[in-house]
Amino acid sequence: MQKTQRLQQLLWTMMKLTYYQLVLSVVFVGMVSATTIRAQDVLNQTITIRITNQKIKDALVILEKNSDIKFVYSSKMIDADRRVNLNVSKSSLKEVLEKVLVPLQLQYEVSGRQIVLEKAEKPKGTERIDPAPEQQTRSIKGKVTEEDGGVLPGVSVVLKGTQQGTITDTKGNFQLDVPDSDAVLVFSFVGYISQEIALGSQTTVNVKLKIDDKSLEEVVVIGYGTVNRKDLTGSVGQANVKDMQKAAVKSFDDALAGRVAGVNVSSSDGQPGSLPNIVIRGSNSLTQDNSPLYVVDGFPLESNDNNTINPAEIESIDILKDASSTAIYGARGANGVIMITTKKGKAGAPVVSYDGYVGIQRDIKRIPSMSPYEFVKLQLERAPTESNDRYLIDPEMTLEDYRNVEKVDWYEKSLQAAPMQNHSISVRGGNPNSKYSVSTSYFDQKGIFINTGFRRWQGRFTLDQQINNRLSFGINTNYSDTKSYGLVAAQGGGSAGIIYSIWSYRPVFPEPNVNLDVDVLDPAVNPAQDYRINPYIQLTNTHRENFSNSLMSSGYMSYTLAAGLKLRVTGGLNRATYRYDNFYNSNTATGNIASPSYKGINGNQSMTTSTSLSNENTLTWTKKFNKNHNLNVVGGFTQQMGKYERFGATVVMITNEDLGMNALDEGAPTRVDASSSLWRLNSFLGRVNYTFKSRYLLTASMRADGSSKLAPENRWGYFPSAAFAYRLSDEPFMKKIGLVNDAKVRLSYGATGNNRVSDFAYMSSISSSYNDYSFGNATPSAGSRATALGNAALKWETTNQFNAGIDLAILKNRISFTGDIYHKKTKDLLLNAQIPYTSGYTATYKNIGSVSNSGLELTLNTTNIQSEKFTWNSSFNISFNRNKVLALTDNQESMTSVIGSTASGYSVTPIYIAKIGQPIAMLYGLLSDGLYGYDDFNQLTNGNYILKDDVPTNGNARASIKPGDAKFRDLNGDLEVNSADLTIIGNPNPDFIGGFNNNFMYHNFDLNVFFQFSVGNDAFNANRNQFEGGAYTVGNTNYYATYANRWTEENPDGIYPRINGQGTTAGYGSRYVEDASYLRFKTVSLGYNFPTSRLAARKIKSLRLYCTAQNLFTWTRYTGMDPEVSTRNSALTPGFDYSPYPRAKSIVLGLNVSF
Question: Which residues form the Secretin/TonB short N-terminal domain (predicted)?
């Protein structure tokens, strides 16, 4: 045991030293790198440019601006007024020059950053010593098109073996004089396969060029490597980052929703700085974290704060979904893996880019509350005497007078038109041996609630250094500083929620000496019964600031040991510090003396530090045998450790509130707490990729993980996977079908794990507590208590997954389709199970039960129109997932869940259920059956009503039930509605989700339109339960305007319960379960790209102006503010809507420019 510990300590010490040495080496190598500019470096620059019918001299100016070079020539010598066409993408400058100059019989010479142009010399042997008859020539003409007949301007047509040639015009036509002998013409164009045509006696030659599929290969990032998409054997979704970056959002996950099949992104609310919840292919666990593993530039992060990454700095996002793709990450791959690759430097002259926008945000929807007239009318019904004295003070005043009274609009007082801005600057460049990237950004978003918001400073630096043809180094560092501030509107509900106060606060105050505009509390409300504070004052007085500083840094060394054999060593550091400041003065919810839990002026501060170190060492061997066999083998071992530290203190009864957080030392400390934890993960991994004739593809992988979170006897887990793919399109019989460019079927199966439990969960734990126990004298005492019972048998939560898929591309890749079906089964679920208090503990982690997820994913990409002036591309994805509880612990058939930390009983009465044979989370309550009508009662001689004996009660005493009370179904027929009648009342899991995207380009204008949808998901609208449910709270509370249609004697057809007619508290009625399906017009962006010919003289490479709008419209039948909201977003409690921070719509004006 001691030897093992010493070995681990030695390994971690070596890992740290390796990382620091690597960082220092890379920095110094970058500092001493040679800066001499070689001709080859200049010619290797990558160029993307489109020139149509431009004069040579104008085309050369454009090339100068796109490559930071200078052409030297004589206009007369090169005939600079001749016109040329050019359309290249990511081609070297050398290739571009040959495409342009050779057909014009020009040659060049590189001198530093200057390129000298002159007429091409005649090939040796063409000089004639003696006069001789002129060689006979003939004129060859023709047309060059694509396979479908589309014209190809700018195609190079060259007489083989010479520099004599021309290019096709805008209609694809060409004409060239050639010797009247056996001659061969070479037709070439970037992105197409070159053709050689022997002329023979022909004078007209029409050529169809085929697309070069290799130029269209799309690289996908997978675990510990990359692969061409056409060679994938697993299920990997790829987000269109360019389209995502058109959305004005703070983090990439805000724009990810609806972009990739099988990826469900949902937001709890619209609080600035809040992060959405991402679930891939359904929830695998009941109580543990279902979020995916993030791998940023190869560095795995178990809990990533995506606010620290500037979306503009992301190059690609690949999402690994099936076990074949995720098993290489073993114990952390069960929930899927999101691979994020950031932008790096490129060979070429430095390119300075700026991307910035400014805009405004507004709330999307407001739910109106009662007018002064309806409000006072309700109060007079509820408590006539009290309300008459309060609202009809003047004897001559009547209820009708309130029709003309202006209401206090708490929405207007609390909300604002909120500005937002973003600015990003980057510099990228280098040469083939040394590439660098430096960037910085600033993001500032004010919240639509006053005194709320989020801001971020961020900077990145990357360096990739090729020392020689064997050795290379690299470093990638990202630093961010963020701040979120202001009141948290969504308290999970409860009377402390700001939205609750806006809806419930009185719209009128006719009493003398009462001014609700400035009063902290409403004197008409007893705070012991309903503690609600002035929403405007609460917003302006609450001091809440959360600060974070994050450093993510990684470095690598790559060394080629032999041909095809490469060693890669990486080291990574992720360190984040968080500080939480809260100060509550006398005008806040807890600082006011009228608070039921009065603490005086109080505050708290806590500090948290999270550190993660990673070391990965891999060997990659690539070999090709006999032209048909390709082998790629990866093997390695990794180490990762994480450390968490926290310190916090709370003080009350502060004497001086003017000093704010600086006055914490003046108060009385009530709680000082500190904690720390440490975890380690050691792993071995291997993967084999084999292809035969690019037709048969096989992948097999294995990973072994050992985690300190589990007991020694169950510490190691083993996660194998295998996948097979068959490319039908390479079969001879398929090649005869000209429509099909690629067709491939895939099969995979594998196992992954989930170790998302707390550190050392297998051990018993003791926690310090305050005021927890009284030793018979009614005085609470501080101390320590046992909280969780250890479980040495705790083991991995394992998910086995089968996947079958098809990839299809037709019509020259203009239409591509991907479809996948999958089935996952997760067993040995990790559950923090409650145990009898007689054990001395409250809970213990157990491996219990199992769940399954099955689904279908479809993705379609199309190029609908593609012409010289107009282009239209579309993408569509849709996903279906069905999950099911297969087994629970201790022969349980079901387990119920409450909503914690809320008012109105949600923390007591179950509202969700996980039941064997049903989806993981189902809404649980009573089936509403309308309202009791007069027909349900017998009328007594005194005029009162008594419920008939054969009519079920609603949970209240039979004698107290009145017409207009809420009515529920008696499922067991005992004529009493109670907990025995609870049943499933809704399904918050969607039937299907997805999105569709359209990109249009007309001349220099571009338009992006994106829609997101979710269909079949229910939500429990707890706001309606509160504000339409029967006015059962204390008086002088406002309600939704819709509650005016409640049951009254004058309105017996009202659809809402009468005052105090809500019925039983045994469960919640299905009347508040709504269809939360929606179609959201998520993003629209219109841009104008200035022609490069106009920018060249100003040394500008590109310039785009744009206007982007976000969350413009949502089509839904849901009556709440937002159908996507989920105040308590977890696997067991989705779709719960109670007092959330409203989502905002925004419109911004922006600029993209590069020099």
Answer: 69-120
